[in-house]
Structure formats: C-alpha cells, structure tokens
Amino acid sequence: MKKSHGVISLAEIDFADRSFPFSWGPVPAVLAESITAVGVLQPPLLMEGKNGFRIVCGRRRLEYLRERTEATSVLVMAMADNCAEAELFRLALWDNRAIREFNLVETADIYLAAEKLFPAARLEGEIMPALALPRRPRFIKRCRIIASFPEGLRALTAAGAVDGETVDLLGEWSPEACQALLELVAVSGLRRNKLREVVGRIDDLSRRDGCAPTQPLAAAVKVAQVPETERVDGEVLRDYLKCALYPNLTQARRDFAARLEKLSWPARLQLEPPPDFEGGDYRLSFTFNGVREWQDALQKLTVLTGENVNEICRRP
C-alpha cells in the first residue's frame, strides 16, 4: 500500500460515505478536550474516492473537528483510489479491534459491509472471528434486523439497552411497531432484561390475538404513562402484560384473596401463593413480639388451617 501524508481541507472529505463503518457514539471527553486544544494529532487514514476522500479510520475525530472547532484543514494519511478497498477494510477492522470491543450495531454494520468485499471463506475464517460473531444463521439474521432498525432503536441497541435476544424478537416487527416500542421505552425507562421480557410478552399477545404488536404496545404505553417527574415501576408494566396474556391469572388472584378473607386471616399472619400459581410452594410468615404473641400466632394458625388448608391451597 502506498501512503502519503498531507494537509487537506475538511471540505475535501466525503463525510456522507459510510463504507468503512468503524465508529459509533460521541468522542470521549478527554479526546474532545485534546482536539479542541491542539487539533487532531494522530493523522486519520483516508482513501481517495469519487466524491472526495473516504474515511477509513478516524471518523469521530474528524467529525468533532469539523462540527465543534473552527478548524478548516487537517493532517491526514491518504491512500490512492486504486488501493485494494478490502485490505484497507481489514486494516481498519483490526486497528479498531485492538483498542475496543464492538457493540451490536457496529458488529452488524461492519459484517454487512464486509459481505460486499470478501468471499465467504474470508468472512468465516477471519472477519467473523474478529467480530466475535458465531458462524450460525441466526446471528447473521440478527445483523440484518439491526440494519433495518430506526435510528432511535439502533442507538438503544448500541448503548446496550436492547440485547441480542430482544433484537431477535423484533425481527418480524414492522417499522411502526418498532417506533411504538421507542415510545414505550421513553415513558417506562425499561432496559435490557426487563425490556426483553416486556417485548416477549407483547410479541406473545400479538400472536395469540392475531393482531399487530402496535395494539398491545399502545395499551402498555397507557399503563406506563405517569407524571414526567416519575418513572413507572417496571413490575407494574410487566404484571399488566402478564395478566393480559393470561386472563385466568387475575381471577385466580381474586379467588385466593377471597378465600383468605372468609377465614378472617389476621394481619400478623401472611400467606403468599406460588408465583402466578404455577406450581411451587406457598409461603407462610408471621410476626410476633415476645413469647405470648409467638404462642398466640401458632395457636391461631393451627385453628385456621386445621380444616381449611386444602381450601386455602386449592389450585385455580
């Protein structure tokens, strides 16, 4: 590869070209301070193109220089337009991989760009291992799903708020449903594990009812909407969707509460059913202050459960 150093105008750089997708997120504060003070010290690597120089490495530094400083030129390392683009791509890949891990969005963008440059053997033998991307169809499909996301959802995925399993669930959602999900995230603050559970329940609801995910999403947004100074409890939203998905659960809870009420269950004694009545054990607890209250609680418990334990623990 023949390289040359030189100062060029920022206007000569084709910032719209994203054929080398090796950057994401804001410039780190320390680097931003350095660029503001003395400019870009490490020459970015560019490649000559039809519409100006294409950025191979150093995009975030160049964008910050252009947008946040008064600089009009920069020292760069440039390659002629007849250089092998695939080799420059490999150089940028390994240079970036050496100093950081790629997020899901970067991994998807880089892989899909590499597909256009490398034969299958090179993809599987070098590019995918460098990206820590398993050689299985569902992970390739995940890359294509991410590429179809609206920008807001891509940003959440890059930040780690949306994990890979959630991406898989969203694969068959429409752009309208993805946009509605962004609204739900905005009002609920759900992230990662809780978000994955909510997305899974919404997906199950839409499949069960034969409707678009936008319908249960709209209902979930209403549940999650609270004053701007607060955040809805994620448990409330998840429980709402659970009850919507399993209508019998609400009735089972009511029946259990009614059975306890008939027994005049004292406040000192607490009986909790298994989660969602799906097997598991009932949990009994009581409070006391001193030996007498201990004995009274035990006596009361014996009287209450002697003839009613089967009724209390009857499965819905």
Characteristic key phrases:
15 helices, two-stranded antiparallel sheet, single chain, 4-stranded mixed beta sheet, alpha+beta, 55% helix, 316 residues
Straight-line distance between termini: 74 Å
Q: Mean pLDDT across all residues, rounded?
A: 84
Radius of gyration, CA atoms, in whole angstroms: 29 Å
Oligomer: single chain
Task: Specify the helix fraction band.
Answer: 40-55%
How would you describe what is shown here?
The protein has helices at residues 29-38, 59-68, 85-97, 104-115, 120-130, 137-148, 151-158, 164-169, 175-188, 192-209, 214-224, 234-245, 247-262, 291-306, 309-312, and strands at 3-9, 45-49, 52-57, 73-79, 269-272, 283-286. By secondary structure, it is of the alpha+beta class. Among the domains are: 162-245; 258-312, no CATH class. The strands form 2 sheets. It has a 4-stranded mixed β-sheet with strand order 1-4-2-3. The chain has a two-stranded antiparallel ribbon with strand order 5-6. A hairpin with a 2-residue loop joins strand 2 (45-49) and strand 3. The termini are far apart.
